[in-house]
Amino acid sequence: MGAVSKPSAFLPTDEARVELPLDELPLQHAHEIRLLLRGDSVIDWHRLAMADAEDVRRLLRVNSIDVNNPHDLERLEDLRRRSVMYLTDNLGLRVDEHIASKANVLELPLIASGRGKGQRQACVLLKVMHIMYHLDARELRTLLSIPDHALFELVEQSTMVLFDELRQSGVGVVEFAWSRKTPDSLVTKLLVKRETSAARVFDRLRFRVVVEDPADIIPTLDVMLSRFIPFNYVVPGQTVNSLVDPGPLERRVAAGGEVSTVAAAPADLPNEFSGSGYAVLNFVADLPVRVDALLGEGERGSGNVVFVLAEFQIVDRPRAVANELGENSHAQYKHRQHGRVRERLLRGPRVQPSEPSESGEGETEARRTGGQGNGDGNGSDS
Fold first, then answer.
1. pLDDT, averaged across the chain
2. Residue 324: what pLDDT?
3. What angle do CA 19, 22, 28 make, to 5 degrees?
4. Average pLDDT over residues 37-51
5. For the chain, which domains are there?
6. Burial level of 174, CB count in 10 A (0-12/13-18/19+)?
7. Strand pairing partners for 223?
């Protein structure tokens, strides 16, 4: 009797291709990695760069849409219909009948990649469908009785299996780990951040990937984007890249044709609690997760995809070692972070020279806690 396979958060693939060097990357793949490294938004693109139907199947698969599932295809058609209505009713835009209804919905990404009639309309329509798909899945999450820990476990186990398969196929990953932010860490992060809403914490679920050599980073990102991370749901503005030189990728993209007209993002600001020599690639993605196996009988008609936010950290082995030495270590990071929290919680109001405090206690306490928070060279956040 064969082993029973565990449910997966992601759709399976028969794709045999794994790592490719930068100069062999298909143009669409190069643009996707560039978006991830820059923290850009797909809404600012004016063209896709897909070459064939296989590219379309890959895009839909990583978005948890199964082209062999009639219900998934019906969902795509419904998204198109609603998106056309939005464009015409709210923005007063005209959508040609061919794009609005006659063309096979699976052809839209290829039309949006071309140079012919309907290219711009197909691209605009896909952007609206992208937003509506995300909103639908977010709303579904509020209706389903699936606890966070069950979703996180499904994503963790599915990602672990996927990376085991990738390592066996030759991808240069030497270490893979995941973690969940503890309740105490969540409190600390929200006390440090000016935005004190838990909705702004992106790294409750975190994955760390260590590759053998710096040259393995971009090929590994390509495999991740091809297997389970949709480039269109990489969270804009949340990438921190102090590790990967984007120059070669920018030149590869420029040689193949522009997709986005948005200027390059400004240089990433380092995390104020990290050591001066700390280098890493961090990004956040909203993962569309198949929850068929977690649905109750009464929920099976409501849909089968929800989104789970996850943070990914990619680093090469030499840099991973250097990141744990001296001021770069995690222990020093937490020490500096906790110092800032103590300072922010205990700091009293500023006292004017002409208005001394009644006992001097507030000023003394503020000065004492300020000393704890600033001993590492990090300034006050005021």
1. 79
2. 76
3. 85
4. 93
5. 22-322 (3.30.460.10), 329-374 (no CATH)
6. middle
7. none
Closest C-alpha among 12, 15, 14, 22 to residue 220: 22
Summarize the confidence of residues 283-306 as an average pLDDT.
Answer: 78
Phi-psi region of 28 (alpha: psi -120 to 50; beta: other; left: phi over 0): alpha
Q: Is the pLDDT of residue 174 over 60?
A: yes
Of the pLDDT bands very low, low, confident and very high (cuts 50, 70, 90), residue 358 is very low
3-class DSSP state of 66: coil
> Does the pLDDT at position 359 exceed 60?
no
Is-contact 63 232, C-beta < 8 A? yes
The amino acid occupying position 139 is: E
What is the rounded distance in angstroms from the CA atom of residue 379 to the CA atom of residue 382? 9
What is residue 234's DSSP assignment? B
Q: What is the arrangement of strands in the sheet containing 305-316, beginning at the earlier edge strand?
A: 173-180, 205-211, 305-316, 281-290, 240-241
- Within a 10 A sphere around the Cβ of 192, how many other Cβ atoms? 16
Q: Identify any residues that bridge with 314 across adjacent strands, giving them in sequence order.
A: 209, 281
Query: Exposed, middle or buried: residue 154 (CB in 10 Å: 0-12, 13-18, 19+)?
Result: buried
pLDDT higher at 266 or 304:
304
